[in-house]
Amino acid sequence: MSGIHRRDFIAGSAATIALSTTAKAAANKANNKVVLALMGAHNRGSQLAKRFGPVEGVEIAYVCDPDERQLSKGIAAVADGGQQKAAQGVRDFRQALDDPNIDGLICAAPNHWHAAATIMACQAGKHVYVEKPCSHTPEEGELMIAAAQKAGKVVQVGMQRRSGALYQQMVEKVRGGAIGEVLLGKSFYFNNRPSVGHAEPETPPSWLDFDLWQGPVTEQPYRSNILHYTWHNFWHWGNGEIGNNGVHTIDICRWAMGIDFPSRVDVHGCKLRYEDDQQTPDTMNASFQCGDKLITWEGVSWSDPYQTGNQIGIELRGTEGTLFINDGGMTIYDLDRKPVEKLSGSRGDTEHIEDFLTCIRAGGTPHANLDEGHRSVMFCHLANIAHRCGQSLDLDPKTGHLIDGGPGQDLWQIEYRDQWMPTL
């Protein structure tokens, strides 16, 4: 964003726009009914539609997607979730924000949309469930927090393990001293993704409103290997594998170890597997110095897990033992490497949605509020900045900001297109 636009944006996010009411909207609130709009229906959006649908007192009134092919998929997912009333399909999510009957927005659009859609929804008087990573750049997270606070709206970030009984037990065990003082948090993610190949600029297909799909970010030509999901591999729209999946396990390490921001970031990342258009690394080792503690993340996007058989996992090493956890369960080992306790439980998919809805109806702070979502994704942003700049980063551990600026400051923010800047 240019300086003048940033000031306008912050001013816009600081305004609380009064939500007009109708008799129907008032009746919904009286009955504790929560009416939602879904933004993005291809993959995660349809999954969320099926998870929100069975929850009592919830209606998904709109499915919004600039790809008209996805609208029927999203509408079908709402029906599969058990909703009897058919959702309305629209390309532009702003149509749903204009509806006074809508209480909240589920944002499952690509990463470059997360901040702008959340801020616009808050300004329209809506609550937001926004998928991880909550922001595309560091600056966006701070703007989102300001917008949500000023509007007084609930924003839940899609880091569902925060609501899972398994991971809540883990944090309780760690903080209770089960493995002593935790000094090292290691996490990993392995997957065997195919190549994105090569593609030349071309005219967007008729079924896609590509201008709307790009939304707030500066315009780039359409290429067939951007959609769908593969946009994660391009910096203009995504944050690579660490932003896609690393944020989940980094968040759990940070939560269990009681850490806000790192003081130093060291990264080695590269592309090893394919010669294609992918811009983000397919292999990364990131190290986050956090005072006298260390958090690490390893990501490999071209090779399945073998030794552990687990795609995703966390190892916490303490002065009195080690804890290993993944979505299948948790094992605590003593210093003699003997397992002393095993636990299992939910990873939190349904509970996370229920937590969001409870906060809408009764107030309170959601488990994965924007403050927590921002702190966790900052680890990912900083790792990507270090990788792209080719140098380690020194940071203020209280704010996560770069010390003395440097080349990384150029990647702290992005420029938005004028027509997508929120206005009063």
UniProtKB/TrEMBL annotation:
One MF term in the entry's GO annotations: nucleotide binding
SUPFAM superfamilies for the chain: Glyceraldehyde-3-phosphate dehydrogenase-like, C-terminal domain, NAD(P)-binding Rossmann-fold domains
Residue ranges of every copy of the Gfo/Idh/MocA-like oxidoreductase bacterial type C-terminal domain listed in the record: 198-420
Domain of life: Bacteria
InterPro entries reported for this sequence: Gfo/Idh/MocA-like_OxRdtase_N (IPR000683), Gfo/Idh/MocA_oxidrdct_glycsds (IPR050463), Gfo/Idh/MocA_OxRdtase_bact_C (IPR043906), NAD(P)-bd_dom_sf (IPR036291), TAT_signal (IPR006311)
Gene3D superfamilies to which the protein is assigned, alphabetical: Dihydrodipicolinate Reductase, domain 2, NAD(P)-binding Rossmann-like Domain
PROSITE patterns given in the database record: TAT (PS51318)
Residue ranges of domain Gfo/Idh/MocA-like oxidoreductase N-terminal in the record: 55-158
Protein name stated in the entry: Gfo/Idh/MocA family oxidoreductase
Organism, scientific name: Aeoliella straminimaris
